[in-house]
Design goal:
Layout lengths: L4 E7 L6 H9 L6 E7 L6 H5 L5 E4 L7 H10 L5 E6 L3 E2 L4 H8 L5 E5 L2 E2 L6 H16 L7 E3 L11 E5 H6 L11 H11 L3 E4 L5 E2 L6 H22 L3
Parallel strand pairs: 1-2, 1-4, 2-3, 6-10, 7-11
Antiparallel strand pairs: 4-9, 5-11, 6-9, 8-10
Amino acid sequence: MDNKISVVIRTYNEEKHIGEVLESLQKQTYKNYEIVIVDSGSTDGTVEILKKFDTKLVFIEKKEFNYSYASNVGVKNSMGDIVCFLSGHSVPVNDDYLLNINNIFQDEKIGGCYGDVIALPDGSIYEKTYNYLGYLKNRVKGMDNQVKYETTIHPGIFSCSNAAARKNLLVKHPFQVELGNGGEDVEVAYRIIQDGYVIAKVPRLLVKHSHGQNLLAFMKQLKSWRIMYREVLSFINGD
């Protein structure tokens, strides 16, 4: 079955990499897809670059932005059976990225999936080392082509810099605005699992994604991820 895939990309001042992201999508061997851009008031050349590509461009106010709201706007404006989430600086590495997404959802027990991340060429040495070690571990263990079916949440599951889910589940379980500063994707993964589906970790769904953070900023981000995860657990438990 050829599912229509809607690729939802949130942008704000992404001129550095958004062209590379869209060019990588143009090269995909799987052609049954659309691109939905949710831009929250870019002031650089992002919009001019976007207009050179075949995309559905949706604008929101900068003051309205949080991750949940922007993602929900993207889902609302999508026409696909499957919604794939990339950031404006998440570049699919392989030209069968979308084909692999379509293939994974042939399994009816899979509600969502996500992949591996390596740093962009301009990423910091800390990002390159941290991300590549995880990717290399899978390669060494021969797990780079093995799909892992997950039924419990954890930090990093269904990270929307490189993830996809069935649209009907995203409509049923929209991203929670209360978690809009981060962790909203983990909460959605929890709801999908509660519905009896699994979340598939698919290493071959590989993207280049990083922020060029120095050591202090990178350590702060790792700490913030742990804090966000605790906040998600509190939200789920009604605390």
